[in-house]
Design a protein that fits this description.
single chain; alpha+beta; Alpha-D-Glucose-1,6-Bisphosphate, Chain A, domain 4; 7-stranded antiparallel β-sheet; globular; START-like_dom_sf
Length: 142
C-alpha cells in the first residue's frame, strides 16, 4: 500500500473551494493527475454515484472507475476506485473553514500487488501531484 497526503490553506471560503472542486468540466485546470472524464463526471453528486476518470500518474495513463463513498457538501468528498492491474485507489478531500479561508487536505491511498513494486516512486510522484493540484486550485479560487 502507498498512502499520500497534502494540505494547504486557501484564501477563499469553503463553499467557493467546494464549487471549484465539484465543477467537473474545470478539473483539468487544477488537478495534476486528471486528463479527462469520458462521460463528463458524475451524473449525480451523491453517495453511491459512479464515474470514470482518465488519469496520468508517473507518466502512465490509467482509467479509474470511481464510486462516491462519503459526501458532506463544502466539507468532505471521499471516492474509491478500481484502476488497471487490480489497483484500488482512494481519494479524500477534506475542507475545513478557517475564517475567510479554507484548509484543504487531500489524502490518497493505492493498494494492490502492482503498488508494492513501486510504492516509493508512487508516493513521491503522487505527493508532488497533490501539492501541485492544491497550488493550482488555490490560484483559481483566490
Amino acid at each position: 500500500m502507498a498512502e499520500v497526503s497534502a494540505e494547504a490553506r486557501i484564501g477563499a471560503p469553503a463553499e467557493k473551494v467546494w464549487a471549484r472542486l465539484t465543477d467537473w468540466p474545470s478539473h483539468g485546470e487544477w488537478n495534476a493527475t486528471h486528463t479527462s472524464f469520458p462521460d463528463g463526471g458524475p451524473a449525480a453528486l451523491e453517495v453511491g454515484g459512479t464515474f470514470q476518470e482518465n488519469m496520468k500518474l508517473m507518466g502512465f495513463p490509467a482509467e479509474v472507475e470511481w464510486t462516491i463513498e462519503e459526501l458532506e457538501p463544502a466539507r468532505v468528498l471521499a471516492i474509491r476506485g478500481k484502476g488497471p492491474m487490480a489497483v484500488s485507489v482512494a481519494t479524500r478531500y477534506t475542507l475545513t473553514p478557517d475564517g475567510d479561508a479554507t484548509t484543504m487536505r487531500i489524502d490518497g491511498e493505492f493498494t494492490g500487488a502492482a503498488v508494492s513494486l513501486m510504492a516509493g516512486k508512487l508516493k513521491d510522484s503522487a505527493t508532488a501531484a497533490l501539492n501541485e493540484s492544491l497550488r493550482k486550485l488555490a490560484g483559481l479560487v483566490t
